[in-house]
Specification:
Keywords: DNA-binding, Phosphoprotein, Transcription, Transcription regulation. It holds the Pfam family Response_reg. It comes from Streptomyces pseudovenezuelae. InterPro entries: CheY-like_superfamily (IPR011006), NreC/VraR/RcsB-like_REC (IPR058245), Sig_transdc_resp-reg_C-effctor (IPR016032), Sig_transdc_resp-reg_receiver (IPR001789), Tscrpt_reg_LuxR_C (IPR000792), WalR-like (IPR039420). One of its GO terms (molecular function) is DNA binding. Helix content is 48%, strand content 14%. With 221 residues, the chain is α/β, with parallel strands linked by helices. It has a six-stranded parallel sheet with strand order 2-1-3-4-5-6, sandwiched between helices. Strand 3, helix 3 and strand 4 form a beta-alpha-beta unit. Helix 7 packs across helix 9, helix 7 crosses helix 10 and helix 8 packs across helix 9. The radius of gyration is 17 Å and the shape is globular. The termini are far apart.
Length: 221
């Protein structure tokens, strides 16, 4: 059973998400929070698998709350998915940098929300389905200028290639087709790269791809 915490200051939004999630046989809503401070407290108390976290909330915003959660070693297994009203929310890239496993636009189709919750539990990052590549480029362009880092030194040539493809927004299946390998092989390369770099999840691998200079904004080939 996947346990989800809903963190949003709008009770109607929480009620809508709860109705959808609780109707699933493999998902349950473990709790709710109406501000960032309460969200952090509830996460520590309930230890959910996934937190659906609104970016803009009173007392403590979603970005700061996410940092507190992802910086707490005791909460290592908790995945945070940021919720935003606008596709180009200026805080989204910073949220991923802070450790969020991805983000969703609030008007996402119900099927996509359910897929997202299940995907992050399985270790996949969620970078806004349907607009992934454009958004990655947009947020990366706003981030600080990347510099080539020694962190890539321990990667094989194939792992660097795979990391670059992850960085431009390709899924494992798309990487497999690009490299003419099986999806399982592509997934294995991604996993090994994450382990070598100490990346929390796929979203942080994207951030590292930009910050290391391996990928630059606009490289969406």
């Amino acid at each position: 059973m996947i346990r989800v915490l809903l963190a949003d200051d709008q009770s109607l939004v929480r009620a809508g998400f709860r109705a959808l999630l609780d109707a699933q046989p493999d998902i349950e809503v473990a709790g709710e929070a109406s501000d960032g401070e309460e969200a952090v407290r509830k996460v520590r108390e309930l230890r959910p698998d996934v937190v659906l976290m609104d970016i803009r909330m009173p007392l403590l915003d979603g970005l700061a709350a996410t940092r507190r959660i992802t910086d707490d070693a005791a909460l290592e297994g908790v995945k945070v998915v940021m919720l935003t009203t606008f596709e180009l929310d200026e805080y989204v890239f910073e949220a991923i940098r802070a450790g969020a496993s991805g983000f969703l636009v609030k008007d996402t189709e119900p099927e996509e929300l359910l897929r997202a919750v299940r995907a992050v539990v399985e270790g996949d990052a969620l970078l806004s389905p349907g607009v992934t590549r454009r958004l990655i480029a947009e947020f990366a362009a706003r981030s600080k200028e990347p510099a080539v880092a020694d962190v890539l030194a321990e990667l094989t040539e194939r792992e660097r290639e795979v990391m670059a493809l992850v960085g431009i927004g390709l899924s494992n299946d798309e990487i497999a087709r690009r490299l003419v390998v099986s999806p399982l092989t592509a997934k294995t390369h991604v996993s090994r790269t994450m382990v070598k770099l100490g990346a929390r999840d796929r979203a942080q691998l994207v951030v590292l791809a930009y910050e290391s200079g391996l990928v630059r904004p606009g490289w969406l080939g």
